[in-house]
Amino acid sequence: MSAESATAIQRNQADLLDFIDWTGVECLNQSTSQSLANALKQGYREDDGLHLESDADEQLLIYIPFTQVIKLHSIAIKGPEEEGPKTVKLFSNKEHMGFSNVNDFPPSDTVALSSDNLKGKPIVLKYVKFQNVRSLTIFIEDNQSGSEITKVQKIVLYGSTGKTNMASWFVMQGGNH
Predict the structure, then answer these.
(1) C-alpha span between 174 and 46 (Å, rounded)
(2) CB 10 within 8 A of CB 73
(3) Which of 72, 109, 116, 140 is the most exposed place for a label (fewest CB within 10 A)?
(4) What are the C-alpha distances in Å from 96 to residues 54, 64, 91, 93?
């Protein structure tokens, strides 16, 4: 688990919203009236009255393809204190996952969300595991209270596109060259 939280998103990391391939986005077990668009799309995700809600049980499986290869740095998930997500598993470049096989694959990273994180504070991911991402699968395994319904108010993915300037990256990590 990534215990390190980003106090501020690094200057070269941007909201990846513009690089999402909306034609391929899917969410399994979402409520028909409270869908993924409420938590992911610009304008909707800023409205505290809208949210993504699970349907049959607390789990959600979200598939997000990108229009180009991205590098994922961090994720911010906002949700209510009781029904907000707790255990979130992230999978890089795993297509066609379902609830029947999601546990057959090791996640690229697993995040345990605290009440502080649920306020939308970004969590830095294992950056090396998210370098050439064409798609991201987000498995919300459970919620804070163990109830049957999980609610997500906002999901923001931070990262970059293109090649990494290794000299800049090295300096940002505190090294000298």
Answers:
(1) 34
(2) yes
(3) 116
(4) 19, 11, 11, 10
Mean pLDDT of 22-31: 97
Q: What does the alpha-carbon distance between residue 167 and residue 22 come to, in Å, rounded to a whole number? A: 34
**Residues 114-165 pLDDT 10s:** 988 999 999 999 989 999 999 999 999 999 999 999 999 999 999 999 755 5
Say if CB 94 and CB 145 are below 8 A apart.
Answer: no
Q: What is the pLDDT of residue 73?
A: 97
Strand partners, 85: 143
- How would you write the chain as a 3-class SS string? CCCCECCCCCCCCEECHHHECHHHCEEECECCCCCCHHHHCCCCCCCCCCCEEECCCCCEEEEEEEEEEEEEEEEEEECCCCCCECEEEEEECCCCCCCCCHHHCCCCEEEECCCCCCECCCEECCHHHHCCEEEEEEEECCECCCCCCCEECEEEEEEEECCCCHHHHHHHCCCCC
Q: What is the pTM of this model?
A: 0.86
Question: Who's near 61: CB < 8 A, 6+ residues apart?
Answer: 27, 28, 29, 97, 98, 99, 102, 137, 138, 139, 140
